[in-house]
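To the team - zinc ion complex, inputs and output below.
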Amino acid sequence: MNTLLTNARIATMDESFSIIESGYVFISGKTFKQIGAGAPPQDVLKQADVTTDLKGKWIVPGLYNTHGHAAMTLMRGYEDDLPLDRWLKERIWPFEGKLTKESVAAGRDLAMVEMIKSGTIGFLEMYHLNMDDFASRIEQVGMRAVLTRSVIGLCHREEQDAKLNESADFAARWDGAANNRIHTMLAPHAPYTCPIDYIERIVDRARSLSLPVHMHLAETKKEVDDYHTSFGLHPLDHLVEYNLLDDTSWLFAHAVHLEDSHVSILAKSKASISHNPMSNLKLGSGIAPVMNFIQAGIPVSIGTDGVSANNTLDLWQELRTAVLLQKGMVQKADAISTQQALRMVMREGANALQTGQKGMIKEGEEADFIVVDHTAPHLQPETQLHSHLVYTAVGSDVSDVYVQGHCLMKNRELLTLDEEKIRYEVNNQYQATVQSL
Ligand SMILES: [Zn+2]
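Output:
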């Protein structure tokens, strides 16, 4: 299948952030075969099976959400005003205890609808239920994903080992699946839910399988203070004491309560950070020292966390919040440039998820991109494309979404998910779950 899109404004997000003011992209199979300014040459026109005139719409790399719990989308708005520990214990865990195969699937379908409709093409899922079902579903839907069957180790050794085996078997089974759109990691939930010797066994297994490790880290001050009280040190220092940062590719979510010494430690490791500003603000957890990470050379990407703590999967909102927070925190208007900001949800996101993709529109790369409708009033005057994407774009500006050359949404209509049916199912499953509490 050869697809040609003409008359587009193309934000390549390549090394020099070049913009093609009016041009075309020609996709052959899953790859950008030719990208150019002006009208496509005759030989390209002849090869195209489908040609679409974008009438000035913008072609932009797709977005990556590097930390979340898609199943928890069913819990949107379920509790808005509790801190993390009480939020989990009093509201979220009891609700999750009543989830069924059907309700988990409904939440995840809703998450994929919301992500595609706001321009997200790839995401990380950290969860413990029905992961094989989700992997199969993603294979059909056509998104990219990093899937982790996460584990909590507050149980006896046999149960810990059974969970780890299940997690590692799942990871081995699905890594590279769905035409290399699905990748996997191992994922201890957090230091406060996994004893250090359990994390050590998980990391050992990840090393033997050559898989990265994903974990919540230092999300709240209370969690770090409690850890100090129990073990006499910060959870990251505990990982260092057990040599768990060596020879391992870590992706830490949150990383809000870290000292300068921790930033130095992370800079020397292969770790990267998924920054989740809206969840951290909403749960009253704090603001991560993102500028310190960036200045130390630690890669930073953006995640929404679960919708139950956000309450949206719209990465444009998340990105804007991240940038504004850091500018205000360090009192520097040039703390993060618009181009740097965009890279956090594009290139850095792709790198964090270790997809092998570059997060750019470039010949030879896989054809992952979104089309942004440029006609909304908040995108006028149109000149400052990068600025508008960071500071004014919203999810509903995205009109089309492509992954590996396959169209997942055209003119706001989803092609691989039944949105109306999913909306109906989500509301039914939510009511059934609440009634069973
Ligand atoms: Zn999380």
